[in-house]
Amino acid sequence: MRPSVSIITPSYNSSSFILQTLRSVTTQTFNNWEVIIVDDCSSDSSAEVIQQYASQDPRIKFIQLEKNSGASIARNTAIEVATGRFIAFLDSDDLWHPEKLEKQISFMLENEVAFSYTAYEKIDEKGVSFDIVNTPTKISYKQLLKTNVIGCLTAMYDVEKLGKVYMPVNTKREDFATWLAILKKIDYAYGMPEVLARYRVYASQSSAKKTKMAKENWRLYRDLEQLSIFKSAYYFTHYAVRGVLRTKFPTLARALGVLD
């Protein structure tokens, strides 16, 4: 029997994209899955849209939080009730290629991998692809500290090997912190070079948000990972330089392998 996978999907005001996201799951060539959608008190029609679609497929499970609590708690609520051997993540505006689950699970089983990720493409609000994000074939804890190269929509871990790993609720870099926590348990996470997911980027994303994320990155080094100020400065410098190269000089970044 094929192993099962639980797909963790937090939702907040996602009515514009959630049906596209769910269809990218229901059209997977691998069909032994459950998707657990946790709505974080949306103020739009998300809940109604999701419930209507879920009524057509018992593998789609819907939970509503009683109060707005943030993505970490929404994801953790889903992880708590997940029954799959594998845990995968897919936000309510992102998409998967049809063979994503089948190829990634086969890769993990054949190579006895506990934690994996894949390359992915960036799309705009209309779904038009404009960039490819390549990833290294493997990465360690210390390497990942330099910059988070694991896209949340591509990450998958094996509960049999790692147990359930929950996201911290005291940081906005919850996915980054989770991958670091996993890499404290194992030597490497392993990447697949094939593009198997589509990450949606919004025009409204601003430099102010990037500044806030930079501050969160520093706090992650100091407070969550409890690195010394010197180590924090070392890793933060890598993070900042790579960020500038990716944003301002993408051609040079590709030549240097910074986008990989």
TrEMBL record:
Pfam families membership: Glycos_transf_2
Record-listed E.C. numbers: 2.4.-.-
All copies of domain Glycosyltransferase 2-like, residue ranges: 6-133
CDD domains membership: Glyco_tranf_GTA_type
Entry keyword set: Glycosyltransferase, Transferase
Enzyme class, UniProt record, top EC level: transferase
MF GO annotations: glycosyltransferase activity
Keyword Nuclease: no
UniProt name for this protein: Glycosyltransferase family 2 protein
Source species: Denitrificimonas halotolerans
Highest classification ranks of the organism: Bacteria, Pseudomonadati, Pseudomonadota, Gammaproteobacteria, Pseudomonadales
